Each structure stands twice: as C-alpha cells, then as structure tokens.
Amino acid sequence: VGDAEALLQVGLCAQGPDSQLLTKLGAVPRSFGVQLGGADGSSAVKTGDVIGVSYDQAVFPVAVEVWHNGVRMAVPPARG
C-alpha cells in the first residue's frame, strides 16, 4: 500500500476459466472495472483509504459505481 507499483482493480466479470483471474479487468470480454495505483492507475491507494462499490441489477445494463474516499470514479459501462 502506498507503493507506486501497488495495484488494486475493482470491477466485475462473468465467470470464466481460472486463467482470467490473472488478467486485468477489461482485457477479456465480459469484464470491466477501474484500476487504482500502479503506473496506469487513476489514483494511489494509501493505508486508511476507503473503497466503495455498488452493483444495481435492477436496471439494464447493470449499474456499477466505485468510490475512492467518497469521490465517485469513472467506471466503463458494463458489457457482456
């Protein structure tokens, strides 16, 4: 945590082969999300940070929201 190389991915994907668990979200069909930290991340994650996620299946396509310390993050639209 707090390391420039640290990476946290938050999102969703359809159930697939175990090998997909080693790929970045969005790299395979039917997966999407946001990345925090790392070289490509939108913001670094530090000790004490709060990550919030909501998933609303009552609408189509499903709605997913991600917050970092109370700030809503841009999430790619759900696909798949």
Looking at this protein, list some descriptive labels:
two-stranded antiparallel ribbon; mainly beta; 80 residues; 3-stranded antiparallel sheet; 5 strands
Tell me briefly what this model is.
By secondary structure, the chain is mainly β. Helix content is 0%, strand content 36%. It has no helices and 5 strands.
Overall pLDDT level: 80
Number of domains: 1
Compute the number of helices. 0
Q: Beta-strand level of the residues, as a percent range?
A: 35-45%
Helix/sheet category: mainly beta
How are helices and strands ordered from N to C?
A: EEEEE
- Characterize the biggest β-sheet: 3 strands, antiparallel
Major beta sheet, strand line-up: 3-4-5
Low-confidence stretches: none
CA(first)-CA(last) distance: 32 Å
Q: What is the strand tally? A: 5
- Percent helix among the residues? under 10%
Shape: globular
Rg: 13 Å
Explain this structure to me?
This protein is an all-beta fold and 80 residues long. It has one domain (7-73). Helices cover 0% and strands 36% of the residues. It has no helices and five strands. The protein has strands at residues 7-13, 31-37, 51-56, 63-68, 71-73. The radius of gyration is 13 Å and the shape is globular.
